[in-house]
């Protein structure tokens, strides 16, 4: 369960101390749970679910289902081959009217700053990409030269 709590914290971009302060437990309590020293108590889980109602309790406790309630996608499920097209969020087309275009006009006139010359900018090159599969195998890809 500690890995699922860590995944949720990563999703929310919160630290262990922020989680502890938010749900009203001691910081050491969260640290011990995250490192596997202690298992989370019923009160810890109840406070977590009460503070963050979007967490799917079944996922948190048993590891089944989606991380979030209300059809929101878990990052792992987003890249899963099992994902069905109806699970994806629908693309919303904006209906532009004259008033929308008029309101956007001041922003359209603004220009973007010029990027620095390529020689002055530090460039990063991709060294490798690693894809991990559920059967504990992986495939490594490198840039073609």
From TrEMBL:
Coiled coil: none annotated. Residues 94-122 are annotated as: Disordered. InterPro entries: Cro/C1-type_HTH, Lambda_DNA-bd_dom_sf. Residues 5-60 form the HTH cro/C1-type domain. GO terms for molecular function: DNA binding. This is HTH cro/C1-type domain-containing protein.
């Amino acid at each position: 369960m500690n890995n699922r709590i860590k995944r949720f914290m990563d999703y929310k971009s919160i630290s262990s101390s922020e989680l502890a302060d938010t749900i009203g437990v001691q910081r050491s309590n969260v640290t011990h749970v995250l490192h596997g020293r202690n298992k989370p108590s019923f009160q810890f889980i109840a406070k977590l679910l009460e503070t963050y109602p979007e967490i799917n309790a079944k996922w948190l406790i048993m590891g089944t289902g989606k991380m979030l309630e209300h059809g929101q996608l878990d990052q792992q499920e987003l890249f899963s081959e099992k994902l069905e097209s109806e699970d994806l969020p629908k693309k919303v087309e904006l209906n532009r009217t004259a008033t929308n275009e008029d309101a956007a006009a001041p922003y359209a006139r603004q220009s973007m700053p010029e990027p620095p010359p390529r020689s002055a900018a530090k460039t990063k090159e991709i060294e490798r990409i690693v894809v991990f599969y559920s059967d504990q195998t992986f495939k490594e890809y490198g840039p073609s030269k």
